[in-house]
Design brief:
The protein has 334 residues and is α/β, with parallel strands linked by helices. The chain contains twelve helices and twelve strands. The protein folds into two domains: 151 residues, Isopropylmalate Dehydrogenase (3-Layer(aba) Sandwich); 151 residues, Isopropylmalate Dehydrogenase.
Length: 334
């Protein structure tokens, strides 16, 4: 079993990416990781730690300043395109991980790998923690700014299948993001999609408001990429602001600093719970092979988690599960 990793994607590449790959193969004896990028730099970081790590040399790097589709077509010797080529052509490669340009990853996935039959549009599905300890998936979180009802229906199916694997829940609760819980509320897209959701082979529980995202009352939140991305960035920004204010307040009072010493374990547990390292990156669901997109600023533990994520999804037949659910849909695309 092989997972290909874009070693030069992300702000902390290649060091953190390579170290993340080393951690992954050390923990899984069945796994081989293929790193794409400047071979000399990768070998320098590995420093002899090359057991079950393969290297495919690439002389170029796609950056966030590149136009995604143009870069995929023209930078054929980039670490990202080389990774896509391996994913497409080598049957032993079960998935790919990259912290590179989101636009380039999405473009490459469509241009190089292609969609699962029946899926109108693939979507990004990051996982967030909730106050109950259960996690929640937001799908889509930015791949599709403008959507039709059929797209949201496919998001619901893919999100439900994904959640059932990563969380072990056979019947996850699926909801539509809306500005109210009532069936008649919302924009035209949501009002049109709501009754169609009732015919899907998923556990649809109705609408959910933004304030309930981290309540733990729903497992999969379905929305278009524009609203989903705004929601995700808002949640991440709020969490960061709260932690920053808390840290500042503690430092501003001697008694607070003294009390914080007794809460060190609590703060550490809170940081762990809010960390993205637990699950890895956001999978790009709906393409023919497994692709996980990491934050550009991610570190080695997140890379390791993403590689493990690919392995878990492959072993649990996520793509086949999505294909099966799509065939059970009672709504046809126009």
């Amino acid at each position: 079993m092989k997972v290909v990793v874009d070693a030069f994607g992300g702000d902390n590449a290649p060091l953190e990416v390579v170290e993340g790959a080393v951690q992954a193969v050390r923990a899984n004896k069945e796994l081989t990781v293929i790193l794409t990028g400047d071979e000399n730099k990768i070998r320098e970081i590995l420093n002899g730690r090359e057991e079950r790590i393969e290297i495919v040399n690439a002389t170029e790097v796609i950056t966030n300043d590149d136009t995604p589709t143009v870069a995929i077509r023209q930078k054929k010797d980039s670490s990202l395109v080389r990774a896509f080529d391996l994913l497409k052509e080598d049957e032993s490669v079960v998935g790919m991980v990259s912290a590179g340009s989101t636009g380039a990853i999405l473009s490459g996935a469509i241009m190089k790998i292609g969609r699962i039959k029946g899926i109108s549009r693939p979507a990004l599905a990051p996982i967030l923690p909730t106050k109950t300890g259960r996690d929640v998936i937001i799908i889509d979180s930015g791949a599709n700014v403008d959507c039709k009802s059929i797209n949201l229906l496919h998001f619901a199916i893919m999100g439900s299948a994904y959640y059932s694997i990563v969380e072990g829940e056979e019947n996850p609760r699926v909801a539509l993001l809306n500005n109210g819980t009532e069936e008649h509320k919302g924009n035209e897209l949501v009002k049109e999609t709501y009754p169609l959701m009732l015919n899907l082979p998923v556990n649809f529980v109705g609408n959910v408001e933004g304030k309930e995202v981290m309540s733990g009352n729903v497992d999969v939140i379905v929305t278009d990429g524009f609203a989903g991305n705004a929601l995700l960035k808002g949640v991440e920004g709020t969490a960061s602001a709260i932690l920053s204010v808390l840290k500042s307040e503690i430092k501003s009072h001697p008694m607070s600093m003294f009390g914080a010493l007794f809460m060190k374990k609590t703060f550490k547990a809170l940081k762990t719970k809010l960390s993205a390292d637990k699950h890895g990156g956001a999978p790009f669901l709906g393409v023919k092979k497994l692709i996980v997109k990491n934050h550009g600023s991610c570190k080695r533990d997140n890379i390791t988690a993403s590689i493990n994520q690919v392995v878990k999804l492959y072993k649990n037949n996520l793509i086949e599960k999505i294909e099966k659910l799509i065939t059970e849909m009672k709504v046809e695309e126009d």
